[in-house]
Amino acid sequence: ECTITLQDVIVLLGLTIDGEPVCGRDKHRTAIEWQALCLELLGFTPPVTALHGGRLNITTLTDHLAAPMLNDADIATVQCYARCYIMLMIGGSLFPDKSQNLVKLLFLTHLTNLEAAERLSLGSAALATLYLEMCRATNPTRTDIGGPLILL
Q: Where is the Aminotransferase-like plant mobile domain (predicted)?
């Protein structure tokens, strides 16, 4: 028998398993509302074509980060860049969806206060997501899987 445990998450990903839960529901925001949130927390407004419901195209983040941050950037700009990198890690490794190219903007709402985000139990959320995706993958009509497959 083999199973993936919280200890595996700590060892393999270095994520915390204690702390505040990562939960919530996608709010039914309009594209304009998501754009405003991205401007506030990421420092740029993604085009409407990069938004897919409550998800953002990951290449939009990488395109934004291609422009180097100025050496004399203020703290707000540094925090926006940090959120962009965190969203890339979330969408690329920790919580990738089946498309492998979109990240849920719900996670961005947890990054409003970066000091509070440090206390999130991302490890527990990653493991729960993996088990949910493995359960969904047992559906015979399903041809794909999401989640932190690196744990497998």
A: 1-152
In a domain, 82, yes or no: yes
Q: Write out the residue range of the structural domain in which residue 25 sits.
A: 6-151
User: Count of domains in the chain?
Assistant: 1
CA dihedral 87, 92, 23, 36 (to 10 degrees): 30
1 located within any domain = no
CA distance 68 to 29: 30
Q: Is residue 131 part of a domain?
A: yes
**Size of the chain, expressed as the number of residues it contains:** 152
Cα gap 135→132, rounded to integer Å: 5
The pair of three-digit structure tokens given for residue 132, joined into one six-digit string: 């949910």
The reply to whether 14 falls in a domain is: yes
How many CA atoms lie less than 13 Å away from 40 in the CB half-sphere?
A: 12
pTM of the entire predicted model: 0.89
Q: What is the pLDDT along the chain (152 residues), one digit of tens a residue?
A: 689 999 999 999 999 999 999 988 777 889 999 999 999 999 999 999 999 989 999 999 999 999 989 999 999 999 999 999 999 999 988 888 888 899 999 999 999 999 999 999 999 999 999 999 999 999 999 988 888 999 99
